[in-house]
Amino acid sequence: MKHPEEYRGKEVIVLGLAKSGLQVAKVLHAAGAAVTVNDQKPREECPEAAELEAAGIKVICGGHPDNLVHPGVELLVKNPGIPYRAAPIVKAGELGIPVVTEVEVAQHLCRAPMIGITGSNGKTTTTTWVGKLLAAAGMKPIVAGNIGTPLCEAAQAAQEDHWMVVELSSFQLKGTEDFHPRVACLLNITETHLDYHGDLDDYIASKSKLFANQTPDDTAVLNWDDPVCRSLVPYIQSSILPFSMQEQLQTGVYVMPPYLPELEDKQERRIVYTDEQGITHDILPVHQIGLPGRFNVENALAAAAIAIAAGVPVSMLAGPLTDFKGVEHRLEFVKEHHGVAYYNNSKATNAKATSMALTSFEQPIVLIAGGLDRGSDYLELVPFFEGGVKAAVLLGETKEKLAHAAEQAGLKDIVLVNNGEDAAAVLASAVKQAAELAEPGDVVLLSPACASWDMFNSFETRGRIFKEAVHNL
């Protein structure tokens, strides 16, 4: 797309409000564009509308007027969550009007180099960790995107000596054309959001746009253990810095000795980095990483590789990798009650994320799971249920499917919580029933394996209600 200032006097549609819509509308209005913001929610559910109208920006709530998109429109900037089948987007495509997300606008505003991080799981933890690593090295990171400050707002504030550390979803990346991060990281790929993308190929293609505009002077950080990530290598023009838990790399960040079945008895593992000259640098022992779980070892490898690509000295990595204790709703310790430890992993919105969480504990687990039904049968969880889950308390649209998977794993204690109009009461009931099944030394883990939208408006809401219920035991 053009630079925002090139839209002076031109008509631009911003589709969808919320934080990102608010900021991008302000940016384009300040650049002189004739901005119309449209949201299908009723006016009373659009608190941002008044602020925009006070600034002289036209706002239309309550639906998408038939004449909203017309041949005179120069650009449509969509909220990432709005599907491409929405009528205004379909019409824009028919008229040849560019459709982008906020990421594209921010790209043209930002003077700082960008680090883009995406993947099916681990984005927020890794992005936050990278911010800590760069801050410890005095590199002035601004953490933005899917977390923290809206990207356009952060991009406007960034100076040349800052680093923008940006968490990006497939929804955001699908609507990009010129986005060009200095360092781009793909953490992993698993089947998710297929209701939005239609199929796995579109999901992978959207994630891959992270690398589309990189040059040989840039760096692509890839999970070498993920076959989809490795399959992208022939299409990437930038320098590749891999990370691995399972392979000793000629160049890259990896665990030594690797996590292989024949080496499982070896307890002393270390994270190391082998540079382009073949020199191996020790970073820290795996057991010193500040977050539990093998998947957080993978997140630590990714964060270290990204930081190295951005110029952080290897000698400065160990401290932040040790000191960082995690992000809310991601394997977050809540409290211990009557000898039982309670953990909030509400961000586990797919089966892969829950399976990773289930491998993080040696103690017996009472699992609370269930939520929005996106068509999965959850049978991939069976071996993980067999590995350490002693009981399951299930709720939401998927509770019967999860119960079937639990039965396949041989679980005897399976509780299906009755649905009700009060979602908070349903989750509180699940917590109470899990507490009754748990014994001292056990873990009660909320790790839903599903999105929250059948009962809650976000995984954050679900996690906070879980924590409140735990504190009320």
Automatic annotation (TrEMBL):
<dbReference type="InterPro" id="IPR036565">
    <property type="entry name" value="Mur-like_cat_sf"/>
</dbReference>
<keyword id="KW-0132">Cell division</keyword>
<feature type="domain" description="Mur ligase C-terminal">
    <location>
        <begin position="329"/>
        <end position="450"/>
    </location>
</feature>
<keyword id="KW-0133">Cell shape</keyword>
<dbReference type="GO" id="GO:0051301">
    <property type="term" value="P:cell division"/>
</dbReference>
<feature type="domain" description="Mur ligase central">
    <location>
        <begin position="117"/>
        <end position="307"/>
    </location>
</feature>
<dbReference type="GO" id="GO:0005737">
    <property type="term" value="C:cytoplasm"/>
</dbReference>
<dbReference type="GO" id="GO:0071555">
    <property type="term" value="P:cell wall organization"/>
</dbReference>
<dbReference type="Pfam" id="PF02875">
    <property type="entry name" value="Mur_ligase_C"/>
</dbReference>
<dbReference type="GO" id="GO:0008764">
    <property type="term" value="F:UDP-N-acetylmuramoylalanine-D-glutamate ligase activity"/>
</dbReference>
<dbReference type="InterPro" id="IPR005762">
    <property type="entry name" value="MurD"/>
</dbReference>
<dbReference type="InterPro" id="IPR004101">
    <property type="entry name" value="Mur_ligase_C"/>
</dbReference>
<dbReference type="GO" id="GO:0005524">
    <property type="term" value="F:ATP binding"/>
</dbReference>
<feature type="binding site">
    <location>
        <begin position="119"/>
        <end position="125"/>
    </location>
    <ligand>
        <name>ATP</name>
    </ligand>
</feature>
<dbReference type="Pfam" id="PF21799">
    <property type="entry name" value="MurD-like_N"/>
</dbReference>
<dbReference type="Pfam" id="PF08245">
    <property type="entry name" value="Mur_ligase_M"/>
</dbReference>
<keyword id="KW-0963">Cytoplasm</keyword>
<comment type="similarity">
    <text>Belongs to the MurCDEF family.</text>
</comment>
<protein>
    <recommendedName>
        <fullName>UDP-N-acetylmuramoylalanine--D-glutamate ligase</fullName>
        <ecNumber>6.3.2.9</ecNumber>
    </recommendedName>
</protein>
<keyword id="KW-0573">Peptidoglycan synthesis</keyword>
<dbReference type="InterPro" id="IPR036615">
    <property type="entry name" value="Mur_ligase_C_dom_sf"/>
</dbReference>
<keyword id="KW-0131">Cell cycle</keyword>
<dbReference type="GO" id="GO:0009252">
    <property type="term" value="P:peptidoglycan biosynthetic process"/>
</dbReference>
<comment type="pathway">
    <text>Cell wall biogenesis; peptidoglycan biosynthesis.</text>
</comment>
<comment type="function">
    <text>Cell wall formation. Catalyzes the addition of glutamate to the nucleotide precursor UDP-N-acetylmuramoyl-L-alanine (UMA).</text>
</comment>
<keyword id="KW-0436">Ligase</keyword>
<keyword id="KW-0067">ATP-binding</keyword>
<keyword id="KW-0961">Cell wall biogenesis/degradation</keyword>
<keyword id="KW-0547">Nucleotide-binding</keyword>
<dbReference type="InterPro" id="IPR013221">
    <property type="entry name" value="Mur_ligase_cen"/>
</dbReference>
<dbReference type="GO" id="GO:0008360">
    <property type="term" value="P:regulation of cell shape"/>
</dbReference>
